[in-house]
Amino acid sequence: MGLTGGVLAVDAGNSKTDVAVVTAEGEVLATARGGPFRPHAVGVEQAVDALAEAVARAFAAAGVTSVAHVSACLANADLPVEEEQLAAALDARAWGARVDVRNDTFAILRAGVAEPLGVAVVCGAGVNCVGMRPDGRTARFPAIGRISGDWGGGWGLAEEALWHAARAEDGRGEPTELARTLPAHFGLGSMYALIEALHLRHVEPARRHELTPVLFATAADGDPLARSVVDRQADEVVAMAAVALTRLDLLAEPVPVLLGGSVLAARHPQLDERIRELLAARAPKAVPRVVTERPVLGAVLLGLDAVGADPGSHAGVREHFAGA
Hints:
The protein has 324 residues and is of the alpha/beta class. The chain has 2 domains: 2-112 and 293-323, ATPase, nucleotide binding domain (Nucleotidyltransferase, domain 5, 2-Layer Sandwich), CATH 3.30.420.40; 116-292, 2-Layer Sandwich (Nucleotidyltransferase, domain 5). Helix content is 47%, strand content 20%. The chain contains 13 helices and 10 strands. The strands form 2 sheets. A 5-stranded mixed beta sheet has the order 3-2-1-4-5, with helices on both faces. A 5-stranded mixed beta sheet has the order 8-7-6-9-10, with helices on both faces. Helix 3 links the parallel strand 4 and strand 5. Helix 5 (153-170) packs across helix 6 and helix 12 packs antiparallel against helix 13 (313-323). It is globular and about 70 Å long.
């Protein structure tokens, strides 16, 4: 049975997938959770197969077999050509009459604003920034790493901390407490020991992300070099936000700038204060706020926008996901 005017919302990230089936009036009929969405690692079809299991459970619980619109906010949909490939793959599943694929950062942005207007900067494992206006204009970055000009994020910060600590210990760089605190996190006595452990996989490379909180703790204790790395992350966040606001002609308006992802949501005082200070200088009318809403809510709202749902339907959806 098709759900007339209804929406299938998908928020698919590197660690998990959330889906929801919602009526045009904002009633959430069903939700489901699935595994990670990694088309870059397993291929588009296999990644969509993983989505299909969660979608099937949500459809079964809602008592429907299709909807009017599929609103999919997907990790690793970084370029328009990737969005087109993923949209074609989802369209082939016949889950909805129309399919709209966006990068998952758009879900975070839409979840945190009352209307599709604002900018979001996400700093989690990596960094990304998007902006939107009600007229459909958007701003975005490729956000695929250093080759697209990105710097920072949890993984990048850990790498930067290791680089400085290694050079501090062997004399090529400035002294820093990171040379002690990073290896100490793994119970090791020197950076040489940590380098060896990472190289020989006595410490799994994936555990490097554990060093990002160590960097922030070392900065909070006053280490000048660690503090400079944290400051640079703030500079990058504000640079992305200011460029997005400029592209959308929003610098002169009081516009939300949403801060999301694990690094920004942790509210590290030095990082948080510097972002707000720099943003006040570059975009004085911007209104920064840390996003706490679930990204799947944003995917739902984008879908309701697309089907022309009454804005009054948003309240029920927000209430549902706030209590979930």
